Amino acid sequence: MQVLKFGGSSLFDAEAIRHVAGLIRDHAQQDEIVVVCSACGGVTNHLARIVELVRSGRAVQALVEANAIGARHRAVLFALELGAEEPAAWLALDELRCELRELVARTSPRNAGLAWCDAVLSYGERVSVRLVAAALRRSGLKAESVDARDFLVTDDSFQNAVPLWDETRPRATKVLGTLLTRGTIPVVTGFIGATRDGRITTLGRNSSDYSAAIVGALLDAAEVSIWTDVDGVYDGDPRTTGGSMTLLEEMTYSEALHLASNGAKVLHPRTIEPLRQKGIALRVRNTFRPEHTGTRIGPEARSCVR
């Protein structure tokens, strides 16, 4: 079984989502698959802007921004050309859009605390999984969106929550295992979980990689793949150095953790540990150049470059 995680740049618009659906379809022909999704590119930053507007008392502008995000998602769903086949997807998007508007409209700056912030920020992933699942069904695959709140139990450290593994494990087996047994691909929200009493939490900004690692560890996956917009892990950031950095073909967990802890943007620092504990390989690949095998990170890897 493999876990495939797609970042925001991989899910930017309908064309990108259709491309991702094709990649998932190719992998599903060879193995059992679980998909983990970030929000569509730029959405979380947009939501963070809404949080700041509310906190500064600019509720009307915040509502305008919320409406703009909702319109963008509706445009993506329309462009996926689902027709009348996916009424549930349209309904879900409308419900989530209304929920976001309510969060914004009914909150004063004084009440815009961390728990409220996490509820707002969760909107992006909760929409993206519905878009991806709908695209997969459109391509002929059985797929269902899964809100990680249904199984990922965390403490109440809002904005930087910690999974409660003993409570999460049996829930994950029930929620994800049931879908896999039915031959259905779970499309899971990255970034979010919930407290014991059901309040939304987030695992930290850019933490969907960590979510994928959690899912991989819970299900004893053979491999977790992080699909992004670069060919793998470099010894620098090719997006800021003109592509002159060296691509690392293989790395150990310790080497990857060192890079992540020192600011390498391609991996979230918390991603490595759940996989290292289970000896599960992590691979970083380019969504838009899938012919490249990317960087493999594992328990025993010879450090090499190409």
Secondary structure layout plus pairing:
Blueprint: E1 2-6, H1 14-28, E2 33-37, H2 43-55, H3 59-79, H4 87-105, H5 114-121, H6 123-138, E3 143-146, H7 165-181, E4 185-189, E5 192-194, E6 200-202, H8 208-219, E7 223-228, E8 233-234, E9 247-252, H9 253-261, H10 272-278, E10 281-286, E11 295-298, E12 304-305
Parallel strand pairs: 1-2, 1-7, 2-4, 3-4, 7-10, 9-11
Antiparallel strand pairs: 5-6, 8-9, 9-12, 10-11
Helix pairs in contact: 1-6, 2-3, 3-4, 4-6, 8-10
Task: Explain what this protein looks like in three dimensions.
By secondary structure, the chain is an alpha/beta fold. It has a single domain, classed as Carbamate kinase. It has helices at 14-28, 43-55, 59-79, 87-105, 114-121, 123-138, 165-181, 208-219, 253-261, 272-278; strands at residues 2-6, 33-37, 143-146, 185-189, 192-194, 200-202, 223-228, 233-234, 247-252, 281-286, 295-298, 304-305. The model has no long low-confidence stretch (mean pLDDT 91).
